[in-house]
Amino acid sequence: MPAKLIDGAAIAAEIRAEVAREAAALREAGVTPGLAAIIVGDNAASISYVSMKTKACAEAGIFSETFRLPATATQDEVIALVRQLNADPRFHAILPQLPLPPQVNELAVIDALDPAKDADGLHPVNLGKLLRGELDGAIPCTPHGVVELLLRTGNDPAGKHVVVVGRSTLVGRPLAVLLSNKARGGNATVTICHTATPDLAEHTRRADIVVVAAGRAGTLTKEMVKPGAVVIDVGVNRVDAPDRPSGYRLVGDATLDVREVASWVTPYTGGVGPMTVAMLLVNTVKAARRALEGRG
Ligand code: NAP
């Protein structure tokens, strides 16, 4: 039987509706949740991601504003903007959209964020809290979205063997921590694979759930998946498509034939992507709630 497709767009809409209810409650209590987005330069993908995020904010009743700096902005200028926003009470969460231009050290910018206003959960304080199993702070959006996709499709990772392909600070490692924490969405046995893993298939074939976040098309194929396993494909890759006006199309890290053996699979679009946006909104209302209750 072919795999069921995980409708990330529908699950994200469900979460956005929950966020809208919380935003309304916060407004009623006198606090309008606010998100500040920072774009440095003219990266088309960054502009499009931020516009998706601010549109989602508006729909959920979250105030948002985008701050643009030129591609030539220095690290000091970006950090000065972060500090200005740290001090601005209209914003409960700040999102420096990555990637930043090469002259700006991304880690230095993330470190300059007030951890209470860290929209993406990438500040060392929030990553440290995640490691300690304290989930009241911001949780990295894409890993958090992956966990919600599993839970909301009845694929609770508890007691399962999950193989995560990729060890980035943005996706792979925080996801492995979330999945192994003793908490809702955790309690899995987790294996992390990367480019120094000698035989990737040996691991993925033993997994009940494979999350592939390698950023390389074709990383996971049908032969590498145990029949009945769940496959979450985080990857977004451009491949040539001369028949298209753009000249390319977007594919994930898993080949389409994994759908012949898996029980559930995320589609290339409408899978993990919408969840990343939804979890950003979750982090924003959580930050506003903490500020309201003086826990910021
Ligand atoms: P990244 O920083 O480039 O990390 C990729 C990781 O995958 C690295 O740890 C790398 O190993 C590992 N890897 C690459 N090729 C591999 C292979 N053949 N076998 C095993 N491991 C391999 O990327 P990222 O930021 O984590 O993002 C991963 C992908 O997810 C990208 O396509 C990105 O665009 C996408 N993404 C999507 C969303 C979304 O919302 N849909 C959000 C974030 C990211 P090494 O450490 O050994 O190099």
TrEMBL record:
GO terms for biological process: L-histidine biosynthetic process; methionine biosynthetic process; purine nucleotide biosynthetic process; tetrahydrofolate interconversion. Keywords: Amino-acid biosynthesis, Histidine biosynthesis, Hydrolase, Methionine biosynthesis, Multifunctional enzyme, NADP, One-carbon metabolism, Oxidoreductase, Purine biosynthesis. Residues 140-290 form the Tetrahydrofolate dehydrogenase/cyclohydrolase NAD(P)-binding domain. GO terms for cellular component: cytosol. It comes from the Bacteria. Its EC number is 1.5.1.5, 3.5.4.9. GO terms for molecular function: methenyltetrahydrofolate cyclohydrolase activity; methylenetetrahydrofolate dehydrogenase (NADP+) activity. It catalyses: (6R)-5,10-methenyltetrahydrofolate + H2O = (6R)-10-formyltetrahydrofolate + H(+); (6R)-5,10-methylene-5,6,7,8-tetrahydrofolate + NADP(+) = (6R)-5,10-methenyltetrahydrofolate + NADPH. SUPFAM superfamilies: Aminoacid dehydrogenase-like, N-terminal domain (SSF53223), NAD(P)-binding Rossmann-fold domains (SSF51735). Pathway: One-carbon metabolism; tetrahydrofolate interconversion. NADP(+) binds at residues 166-168, 236. It holds the Pfam family THF_DHG_CYH. Residues 6-120 form the Tetrahydrofolate dehydrogenase/cyclohydrolase catalytic domain. PANTHER family: C-1-TETRAHYDROFOLATE SYNTHASE, CYTOPLASMIC, C-1-TETRAHYDROFOLATE SYNTHASE, CYTOPLASMIC-RELATED. Homodimer. Belongs to the tetrahydrofolate dehydrogenase/cyclohydrolase family. Catalyzes the oxidation of 5,10-methylenetetrahydrofolate to 5,10-methenyltetrahydrofolate and then the hydrolysis of 5,10-methenyltetrahydrofolate to 10-formyltetrahydrofolate. This is Bifunctional protein FolD. It comes from Tepidiforma thermophila (strain KCTC 52669 / CGMCC 1.13589 / G233). The lineage of its organism: Bacteria, Bacillati, Chloroflexota, Tepidiformia, Tepidiformales. The gene is folD.
